[in-house]
TrEMBL record:
Oligomeric form and interacting partners: Homohexamer.
SMART domains recorded: ELFV_dehydrog
PROSITE patterns reported in the protein's UniProt record: GLFV_DEHYDROGENASE
Source species of the chain: Helicobacter canis
Gene3D superfamilies documented for this protein: Glutamate Dehydrogenase, chain A, domain 3, Leucine Dehydrogenase, chain A, domain 1, NAD(P)-binding Rossmann-like Domain
Keyword annotations: NAD, Nucleotide-binding, Oxidoreductase
Gene designation: gdhA
Protein name, UniProt field: Glutamate dehydrogenase
Amino acid sequence: MSYSTRILTALKEKNPSQNEFHQAVEEVLISLAPLFDKEKKYEKHAILERIVIPERQVIFRVPWVDDSGKICVNYGYRVQFNTAIGPYKGGLRFHPSVNLGVIKFLGFEQILKNSLTTLAMGGGKGGSDFDPKGKSDNEVMRFCQSFMNELYRHIGAHTDVPAGDIGVGGREIGYLFGQYKKLTNRFDGVLTGKGLNWGGSLVRPEATGYGCVYFAQEMLKERGESLEGKVCTISGAGNVAIYTIEKLYQVGALPVTASDSKGMIYDKEGIDVALLKEIKEVKRESLESYAKIKKSAQYTPVSAYEEGCNGVWAIPCFAAFPSATQNELSQKDAKILLQNGCKCVSEGANMPSTNEAIELFLQAKICYGPGKAANAGGVAVSGLEMAQNASMNPWSFEVVDSHLHRIMESIFANASATAKEFGDPTNLVLGANIAGFRKVADAMIDQGVV
Ligand code: NDP
């Protein structure tokens, strides 16, 4: 049995029913096999045995009182996965589907993603099964305060710096930061994604979406192609999707779709970004409202999607940007995308494509940018926010954006060079996984058995 297979088998036995975690680790370990054939030091130092177990994980009770006076209780999580190359860094997700397996998959991905950014950040992730949807601002505030009543003990500007993710945006980061300050009497850069006038960075809201488009441009440039004048499809209608759409217009592409948990819109004239922001960020309504206002848009509810498919991927496109959630692009979806001539998939979300879908993209040798490389712009700008906090010196939009652009270019260059080094030049899954892993694993070896 190979080193990777042995570790994966043991991991599945020891962590039953953490399906998303198994899936994320499996994708990485399969692509690391050529590295282990070449370099025996990682097995000798038991790196895989160590890297798949978080350094620490905290699970806690989050009690809060709703507007009617009822006591509600949620689960809270912070998984501190790896500090080989820097303090724990990774977002908080508030969504009813959150459980330990989901947070561990996200935390594991984060180790390699953060390594690829070239910045000194370890990997971590956290969240809760709390659903902010339909809650009043006061309810969200009380929940965030209760969440921080436990979390503050485990985080710090040089220890662990959480950020946003699904269900955690500027509003939630504000409430979390306020409570952290109240409890500790310290104004620390302990969270990223902060408001601009209290320590936030310009370009942080845009970073993941913009970075994902920069990454797609790099993949295409190598093949003499570009996004200019091309039809693009995007899933999701949150932070990542909105700024992916905004950047696609800036590079001359035509983004025609968006989706949320209830359905999707197809607007052949192009998605109206201002209207999308108004509906999802300000009014927090479903996309059905978009189609009621913009007559060129066609709304399809999830119930009308073909069995086992996501309606977004049925729209013919040159490039696809999955930007909603994990496993939103199935093998069936991948087949449809390829049949319709899709040449590029750049993942804004974490693990949006199933392993079977990824296999099809790799076989077809299209430009496929796995999430841990393509969506690393968000955490990269979080790293830049930490640098600005530490120096007490805020940077201009242009400076942060140019850093982001350079970082995305370097992530692509590193993943692509590594894929070539291992004889599989178009396989950026292999390239990103090996490049991200090597840096962390070598640091673990340097630091001894801890
Ligand atoms: P948001 O909460 O801002 O938006 C998420 C969007 O995805 C919403 O439109 C939501 O629909 C939709 N969505 C969520 N869950 C589902 C589901 N199960 N089925 C269908 N649609 C769903 O989150 P973000 O935009 O921040 O995050 C999107 C993805 O990007 C996630 O995978 C996240 O981990 C990843 N990511 C985010 C980064 C960031 O900087 N924010 C950085 C790197 C990766 P609805 O509006 O109905 O809730």
